[in-house]
Amino acid sequence: xxxxxxxxKDGILIKSPYFDIKKTLTCGQIFRYRIFDESTFGCIxxxxxxxxxxxxxxxxxPHISEKDFFSYWYNFFDLNLDLEKVExxxxxxxxxxxxxxxxxxxxxxxxxxxxxLISFIISSNNHIPRIQKCIEIICQNYGRxxxxxxxxxxAFPTPEELVLANKDFYREIAKVGYRDNYLYRAVHKILExxxxxxxxxxxxxxxxxxxxxxxxxxxxxxxxxxxxxxCGHLEAFPVDTWIKKAIEELEKEKPFSIxxxxxxxxxxQQYLFYHTKNSKSYYINE
Length: 286
Hints:
- 45% of the residues lie in helices and 14% in strands.
- The protein is α+β, with helices and mostly antiparallel strands.
- Helix 11 packs across helix 12 (220-230).
- The two termini are 36 Å apart.
């Protein structure tokens, strides 16, 4: 895989056709990102953050030390995964080939299971701007203040912090709607050890999905989102409106089976999602 990482005095530089920070942040897998201009992006993950400047196929991360990059961000971006080999395992469809060309550079992030679980419960039957707003209100009220390269922000609250939120907060202030009870119950069950996130992280894919679907507010699609983005189960293949439309396109060529997407179904899903969502012929007013 073509991946060049340079350690600079003032940060880290990545050069690779398989690393695009804008596509990675805007493909529906993470919600706490900032777009400052066409080439400058910020992101908060838990209590950590990064600033990224992307120009001419290069991405520069200022203010990140070599130690911090390799102890946390290298794994967060899953840079050890060879995406050229991943793409070679994909089934052969003309529509998917187009999606690969358009979406190449997306990397599935290795986010925390806790943050993914809460975020994707909020995401159910919701759209990205509203999801982001709900999450930010939760962070501002229960997360602690942190310093980032662009100013003051709030960390994603821990279970111990978020347990202080009641249902009225979720519904009236965070505006999560009917998901208020789901969030309240999930947080309390996690803190009371009725839900063991560490155990779920270590389960095989099917067992982990079964365990997640026992949590109120988590169905098939949300479980698969949590598994691929929060557990590293790259075989998971979440299906939403955009993916249904992508499957329609694939099946114009030949039958498509979700059960046969292989070990990197999550990447197929992300490529199809990004390509279909950004195709003018499939514009949906969210």
